[in-house]
User: What shape does this take?
Amino acid sequence: MKKLFIVLFGVLCLGLSQASAQYNPSSLNFSKGQFYDENGTVLNVDQISRIIGSEIFNETYLGAMKQYKAGKKLVTFGAVGLGVGAAVAVACVASGDWYDLISEEDYELTNSDRSLMAGFIGGVIVAALGGTALDVGIPLLSIGKSRLSWIADNYNADRAVTLRVTGCSAAPGIGLAIAF
Assistant: This one.
């Protein structure tokens, strides 16, 4: 009975030591809004927090991820808004007889003319909002992405092994110095 207890205790201790071992990838990569380990496995937020440490996670990762996501949404909205707004404005200009409206002083507006003008103005406003969203979103996306890439680069630099071989003179002759 004593031997069985010792074996079970040993297995339990081994299991606990394996459970407490933390996974630290040899390299960290950031691409398309996700962090990956050296095998290309996507890492979740808890793993990232544990791997990079709470200080960098709280001071850099959280804010950078907010910037990245906000920038991505603004760029998407901006591109769609700019494209749709410009298309509507161009379609309204192409389908109306704007020459009479602009050149004649006593020209009476019809309901069709009013609709075209409203469509044109609406298209211009949507395109302007889309352009503004792009103007704000592109820098946010770029800054967020560069900060997140910095996290991966910083992690990889801390784990990089460098080997430096230099020549040196020794008392009896020439030698090589190897530094890690």
